[in-house]
Write a structure and sequence with these properties.
Blueprint lengths: L2 H15 L6 H12 L4 H21 L1 H7 L4 H5 L5 H26 L2 H21 L13 H11 L9 H11 L4 H26 L9 H25 L5 H20 L1
Helix pairs in contact: 1-2, 1-3, 1-11, 2-7, 3-10, 3-11, 6-8, 6-10, 7-9, 7-12, 8-9, 9-10
């Protein structure tokens, strides 16, 4: 298969799954295995196209991010989320990620850990869906600092490939008293600095595998991820009003079973 076709497919998969609670990393690893798109260059490619998904959130929520630049004491006391919510939600993940980054890359970026993560993350989502705590934050702007920090703790589960950042944070938010939609939108906002930082760090670590000859391939994947992520985010926010989180968990179980058969039987 042509490398550019593989780049488009990988970009579409990244854009579709990055903000859904189904694990984009898991999908990318499994898709890369099926397409035989693996190795150091492929790993760097996967990091680069994540930035396309980040750009989609920036475009859709640009007013929010501009508002975060106002960090006066008065602005921080106003109702609604602000930069402090984002920072305290990031802290646990940043500490965890930097502490065990090497171990994760060396031991967990393979099909078997991904399949385990898909199932474990699905179980957490079903638990969050069935506990049905009383909602104290119906919208994202009602999320408290305490809830933001708790969501950040749940986000740490996403360091395990296949667990899903969105699945972890949405589940955590629901268990802490936010609505499903509020947790999803807050996940999108927090994902931007988290993903940008993680991608920048990974690119720095993988800089020796970056060559000018690969730029066209990377751009194709990045653009595909950006366009598809824009569509996926809007669609997901509409779906999440009608679909319970459990449905995404069932999809994860089916996906894990299918790939187990393909890869091991």
């Amino acid at each position: 298969m042509n490398e550019f076709i593989k780049a488009v497919i990988m970009g579409i998969v990244e854009g579709l799954t990055e903000f859904l609670p189904v694990s984009s990393t898991g999908h990318m690893i499994l898709t890369g295995r099926l397409l035989e798109f693996e190795g150091d260059m492929a790993d760097t490619f996967k990091v680069v196209i994540q930035l396309g998904a980040v750009m989609a959130v920036l475009v859709l929520y640009w007013r929010r991010f501009v508002g975060f630049l106002n960090i006066t004491p008065t602005a921080l006391r106003r109702p609604g989320i602000n930069i402090i919510h984002v920072i305290i939600a990031m802290i646990p993940f940043v500490i965890t990620g930097f502490t065990i980054h090497g171990y994760i890359k060396e031991r967990l970026f393979g099909p078997t850990p991904v399949l385990i993560g898909l199932v474990a993350g699905g179980i957490l989502m079903i638990i969050a869906d069935r506990v049905r705590r009383k909602v104290s934050a119906e919208t994202m702007d009602k999320i408290t600092y305490k809830q933001a920090f708790g969501i950040g703790l749940f986000q740490c589960l996403a360091v395990w490939p296949g667990f899903s950042r969105s699945g972890s944070t949405i589940s955590g938010g629901m268990l802490l008293g936010t609505s499903q939609k509020a947790a999803a939108e807050f996940t999108f906002i927090v994902s931007v600095p988290v993903m940008f930082g993680a991608s920048a760090y990974d690119l720095y670590k993988s800089r020796e595998f970056l060559t000018t000859a690969d730029i066209p391939l990377f751009l194709v994947g990045l653009v595909a991820a950006f366009v598809v992520a824009m569509i996926a985010i809007v669609t997901f926010l509409n779906l999440i009003k009608r679909l319970r989180l459990s449905w995404f968990a069932y999809y994860r179980f089916v996906l894990a079973a299918v790939f187990f058969v393909i890869l091991y039987l």
